[in-house]
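Subgroup meeting minutes
Present: P.N., E.W., G.H.
Scribe: E.W.

1. P.N. recapped why we're keeping a running log of single-chain structure predictions: easier to compare across weeks, and new members can see raw inputs and outputs side by side.
2. G.H. added today's entry (184 aa).
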Amino acid sequence: MSGTWVFVCGPSGAGKDSVLAWAAEHLAERRDIVFARRVVTRSVQPGSDHDPVTAQQFAQLLRAGELAWCWQAHGFNYGIAAHYCAEVSAGRTVVVNGSREHTLNLEATPSVRVVQIMVSAEQLAVRLAQRGRDDAQQINQRLLRNARFNAMRVDHTILNQGELASAGRQLVDYLRAGAESSDH
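Output recorded in log:
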C-alpha cells in the first residue's frame, strides 16, 4: 500500500497558510490525512506551522538522513522529517506546506501531487500591501516573479478569492477524494 505526498504551494499573500490551517482543523478526525510540520531555519512567529532549527541543526538533520524533503526559500532552509515517509508507506496522505520553487523540481509520480493556492494579481497586491512587509516596488517584484511559475506542474488549483471557508472546503474535498481513491 502506498499513500501520497500533497505539496500545497502558492505565492506569498495567496492565503496558503490560512487555507491549510482551515483544512487541518476540519480534517482533524481523519487518521488517513496527516499535515506535516516543517523544520525551518527561522524563528517561530504567531500562527507558525513549523519547528525552528538553527542552520547547524538543519545541516545535521540533512547529513543524518532525517529529512525526506528539503528546499531553500527566501533565505531560509525548509525540511520535512523523514518519519513522514512511514505515513505515506502506510497508505496515508501527507500534506506539506511547500514551496513553488521546490515543486518545480518534483518528478511527476502518482505518489506526489501539487496543489496550488491562487489569487488574482490585483487581490494579491492588495493583500501584500495590507501586510505592510513590502514597499510598492517589492510588491511589484513579487507579482512579476509569479510569472516564473506559470509552467509549474499542478494537479489541482484552488482560487482563494472570497471566503476562507470556500477555499478551505476545496482543499478538504481534494484531500478526501485523494485519500479515498488511494484506499482502493
